[in-house]
Amino acid sequence: MTESENIHLPKTDESDDLKRIRHTFSHVMAMAVQRLFPKAQVTIGPWTEYGFYYDFDNPDPFSDKDLKTIKKEMIKIIKKDYAIEREEVSREDAKKRIAALGEPYKLEILEGLEEPITLYHIADQWWDLCAGPHVESTRKLHPKAFDLESVAGAYWRGDETKAQLQRIYGTAWETPEQLQEYKRRREEAKKRDHRKLGKELGLFLFSEDVGPGLPLWTPKGTLLRSTLEDFLKQEQVKRGYLPVVTPHIAKVDLFKTSGHWQKYSEDMFPMMAETEEAKANEMGFVMKPMNCPFHIQIYKDELRSYKELPMRLAEFGTVYRYEQSGELGGLTRVRGFTVDDAHLFVTPDQLDDEFLKVVDLILAVFNSLKLKNFKARLSFRDPDSDKYIGSDDVWEKSQNAIRRAVETLGMEHFEGIGEAAFYGPKLDFIFTDALGREWQLGTTQVDYNLPERFDLEYVAADGTRQRPVMIHRAPFGSLERLIGILIEEYAGLFPLWLAPEQVRLMPVTAEQLPFAQQVAEQMQLLGVRVMVDRSGERLGKMVRNSEKAKIPVMAVIGAKEVEGNSLSIRTRQDGDLGAISVADVITRLKEALDSHGYF
RNA sequence: GCCAACGUGGCUCAGUGGUAGAGCACUCGAUUCGUAAUCGAGCGGUCACGGGUUCAAAUCCCGUCGUUGGCUCCA
After folding, report:
1. Given this model, what pLDDT does residue A254 score?
2. Which of A310, A292, A352, A353 is nearest to A458 (CA)?
């Protein structure tokens, strides 16, 4: 264990001291900013997981260069050892004092506060409306245990239609050692970044000529993708899913019926229309942002009997969403992606049971992928928003169905209000990437709305026409995002079954090439993805190249191995294992592949 | 979409007003080699793109495109 691994990085929620330190830093920064930029108006400045930020309204945006100046000013303030004092005042008093300073945002904040109103003073130099708590004096802040990290635009009250403020992010710790350790871990995390590893491992790329957010998959990346697809397809066959294939575009009308055109068109690529007239009459085609309306057409193709339900239609359907340019990033947020989609058409009686089966499948998939760090979110609608379709009654019913499911399973979960799809609530599975950002992967949704909008029916046992309920579900969420997360989770070191190149054979000299070739063919026949290193480099170089390419199993072939019909195996995790007979190597490869484990 | 930073051979990066550089990769030659880099030579860039300032621009200014960190929004 290195020395730095002994340094504990406390979390804000486990250390009140740290909370006070960070909160005080944000005020010291605000004071520094107002000294340097007298026109800057203060707003809010909370602590965060790694530090703090403060939002300002300033006539000119801050640049990275300003951060250095602000940091210096902060250090000056810290070294002055100013006392920090709390003062309780009446609402009226607070209002007068804030108005005197000309701080409109603070006045707005004051309106939402309950008495007693508290002010915090940094000596007699500066004060801010704040609930606290803070450290007793600026000396309690270590001038070498913080840093200003970045500037960003941020909307007042998080609302796009309100003023854009300037946010300055900082990181702050109790000791300089903790700051260094934090920075070191950040550097480590960057090495796991799927964008960096994806390039190094040659899995996917983006081309400026193709367009932003539109990934292209190399042969290696495609092997990874299809391995994942094949795996899920097998699991679905075991569970009675039926495969379908549908087009990438459809008439606007289809999406009017579904409600996408009304509630989702901002996220859709613009309509393609043959003539201006067609365009004016909305008679064109659009790229599909979701697969559901297409699967619904297949359901509707025949009059369905209750005996056919549940009907589970599955497709790896590639969808296109016009994400705002600033939101794109690597594989986790793209404009064209493949959903491991399925739509289940069920009778109301079957709903609970089918929903549980879907959750069971999703959890089984995560288990096979060795993904453990996720949270389950009940994504419900925001009753005050108009971005949803359907009646209150139907929403109540579908949200309750999801609640029942997590309760039956005893699954830990949290609620996300306003996180529902426009047509129904979801149970989402949230993962975290190397840099700590959260992403939704698997999802399953209960939907009474689309069956109604498309007037779906089945004939019940008593001969009456009934309306089915739909379950939308995608265990991966999307192949792109899943692979992004997998790359980071494994740090590029895929388990054998997922590795694009599973075995690399390295002949010590050219003399062993024919034997290597023969072994390779033997392995290929069994479905092993194997390559022979024909570079003619020295063994040390070949090993280095294989290690850098993160090949799970390396096999050295010299004169001894040819003689004994064996391979000297080196694995990434265990190093040199010595000579093993070709037959045994193949047996062990098969075992590792079948168990989704390592060699 | 908004705010900021960045964009130099395939990759990683140096060069901040005066004739485009390095390492790796690639090609060729020599070496036939035992578990993370053999030696040598060669090829390769109108410095993202378009405009402007200047005797002179990779370098300064403006615009566009792209990438990154945030905000808003989402698989």
Report:
1. 97
2. A310
- Per-residue model confidence (pLDDT) at position A1: 38
The A 255-274 residues near strand B by Cβ under 7 Å are 267
Type of residue found at A334: V
What is d(CA A479, CA A341) in angstroms, rounded to the nearest whole number?
A: 10
| A59 CA – B16 C1', rounded, Å | 29
Residue A537 tokens read as 């480099």
Candidates A523, A475, A594, A487; CA nearest to A201 is A487
Mean pLDDT by 10 residues, chain A (599 residues): 64 84 94 92 92 93 88 92 88 88 89 85 89 87 93 92 93 93 91 95 94 95 97 97 98 96 94 92 96 98 97 98 94 97 97 96 96 95 92 95 95 95 96 92 96 97 97 97 96 96 96 96 96 95 96 97 97 93 97 92
Q: Which nucleotide lies closest to A440 by the C1' atom and the CA atom? A: B75
Rounded CA gap, A23 and A8, in Å? Answer: 20
Q: Is the CB of A508 under 7 A from strand B?
A: yes
Q: Tell me what pLDDT residue A115 has.
A: 78
- Look at residue A120 and give its three-state secondary structure: strand
Those residues whose C-beta lies under 8 Å from the C-beta of residue A123, and which sit 6 or more positions away, are A80, A82, A83
A212 touches strand B (CB under 7 A): yes
**Which position has the token pair 């692979």?**
A483
Exposure string for A15-41, b = 16+ CB within 10 A, e = fewer? eeebbbbbbbbbbbbbbbbbbebeebb
The string of DSSP letters for A293-349 reads HHHHHHHHTSPPBGGG-SEEEEEEEEEE----GGG-BTTTB-SEEEEEEEEEEE-GG
Judge contact between A27 and A135, C-beta under 8 A: no
Three-class secondary structure assignment of A189-247: HHHHCHHHHHHHCCCEECCCCCCCCCCEECHHHHHHHHHHHHHHHHHHHHCCCEECCCC
What ipTM does this complex have?
0.94
